[in-house]
Automatic annotation (TrEMBL):
Organism: Smithornis capensis
Name of the protein in question: 4-hydroxyphenylpyruvate dioxygenase
InterPro entries: 4OHPhenylPyrv_dOase (IPR005956), 4OHPhenylPyrv_dOase_C (IPR041735), Glyas_Bleomycin-R_OHBP_Dase (IPR029068), Glyas_Fos-R_dOase_dom (IPR004360), VOC_core (IPR037523)
Function: Catalyzes the conversion of 4-hydroxyphenylpyruvic acid to homogentisic acid, one of the steps in tyrosine catabolism.
Keywords: Iron, Metal-binding, Repeat
A Pfam family annotated for this UniProt entry: Glyoxalase
Domain VOC: 7-142, 171-337
Record-level GO BP terms: aromatic amino acid metabolic process
Reactions this protein catalyses: 3-(4-hydroxyphenyl)pyruvate + O2 = homogentisate + CO2
Keyword Transmembrane helix included in the entry's annotation: no
GO MF assignments: 4-hydroxyphenylpyruvate dioxygenase activity; metal ion binding
Length: 387
């Protein structure tokens, strides 16, 4: 690798004309507007909670009005006909070196290494096209910048602080991509080869050559995962690739591909230190969460698993929160069986309904109590119940 890639700096959302979402993100999810940039055609608004930053790109003119490269700073125009999450910005320590490496791998460089500066210092960035759908990656070195966001943006003075609102969101935990058939392994190889990501096994029994497969009776889904080579959990990145294997009927992956118009980012996991208070607070503000089937909580051993983790099954069922435990000793691989060990590791998670009118992009809250995976047991249980 020519350069070290670490945490996501921001994730970009692109919205068509008159389909704003920034106000909803601020008012309902309580992300703080911290910086803004506006041209006659586009408004770019950065909203932050903890270290998680969404850069919302809103069209101020109809699609017939052409945009230019000046309209999208630190990003490119995916020309959306619907809402889409299409750019993940990674912090790197050598933009020029990484861009050269990517070009040597045959990657398409959408924006060459560019330096921008203001009174607070300078940054260097470039933008590369991913091998997955409409996704691009901004590669950013801001080690020489001391400003609140990035050069070219105006800081929003007096952005309100939000302590005590019950919403404990700290950072981006993971990003899940939906790939076309045959595309998940291609994506896995591309991110390993180009960005130095390492394989992350979803299950102790997962065979690296096969991945984690869910399925039965003509329906199926393949899941593969990676983690960045550097960074603590709060400063690293995990990617999950989902691919449909269904032969009869459709599943959530097929639905995304159809309604999104191709591959892309399906959901973003937001890490929370208190999923119960955060879920309650967001529900009170109008956020709609996916309701698990009642059989999820009544399946054999689930109540005992939740109790052994020190949680209240009635509270989790009331809120719709899922819980999954790890097999002791399986660091980096998520297990499925509960254990009576007082030091057992587990995670809790909950998913919002799609945030746009289409059944595409949604958010996840994930509360990790030592578990490094993605809720493999929950995925399997929900797949069985829903499909």
């Amino acid at each position: 690798m020519a350069a070290s890639l670490s945490r996501p700096c921001f994730i970009s959302l692109h919205l068509p004309y008159r389909q704003g979402w920034a106000q909803h993100l601020a008012n309902t999810f309580r992300f703080q507007p911290v910086a803004v940039r506006e041209t006659p055609r586009v408004r770019q608004l950065a909203l932050q909670r903890g270290s998680a930053v969404f850069l919302v790109n809103e069209r101020l003119a109809p699609a017939s009005a052409p945009t230019s490269s000046c309209d999208f700073l630190y990003d490119t125009d995916p020309r959306p006909t619907l809402g889409t999450a299409s750019n993940v910005c990674f912090e790197v320590d050598d933009v020029l070196g990484l861009c050269k490496h990517l070009q040597s791998q045959g990657c398409s460089l959408l924006v060459p290494p560019t330096e921008l500066r203001d009174d607070s210092g300078s940054v260097t960035y470039g933008v590369v096209s991913s091998v997955v759908g409409n996704i691009s990656h901004t590669l950013l070195d801001r080690s020489r910048y001391q400003g609140p966001f990035l050069p070219g943006f105006q800081h929003i003075q007096g952005a309100p602080s939000v302590p005590g609102d019950g919403i404990e969101i700290t950072h981006f935990d993971h990003i899940t991509y939906v790939c076309p058939r045959g595309g998940a392994r291609t994506a896995l190889d591309w991110y390993q080869r180009c960005f130095g990501f390492h394989r992350f096994l979803l299950n102790p029994q997962e065979r690296p050559a096969e991945g984690y497969v869910l399925g039965g009776q003509g329906l199926g889904m393949l899941l593969l995962a990676l983690q960045s080579a550097q960074g603590t959990p709060a400063h690293g990145c995990k990617l999950v690739f989902a691919e449909s294997l269904s032969q009869n009927g459709t599943n959530q992956v097929d639905t995304f591909l159809e309604q999104h118009g191709g591959a892309g980012i399906q959901h973003v996991g937001l890490c929370t230190t208190n999923i119960i208070s955060t879920t309650r607070a967001l529900q009170q503000r109008g956020v709609r969460f996916f309701t698990p089937p009642t059989m999820y909580y009544s399946q054999g051993g689930k109540v005992e698993e939740i109790q052994r983790a020190g949680q209240d099954p009635h509270v989790l069922a009331e809120l719709g929160i899922l819980l999954d435990t790890t097999v002791p000793g399986d660091k980096g691989c998520l297990g499925t069986d509960a254990t009576e060990s007082p030091s057992q590791e587990y995670l809790m998670q909950i998913f919002t309904h799609p945030i746009f009118s289409e059944e595409t992009f949604f958010l996840e809250l994930i509360d990790r109590r030592g578990a490094p995976g993605f809720g493999e047991g929950n995925i399997r249980a929900l797949w069985k119940a829903v499909q």
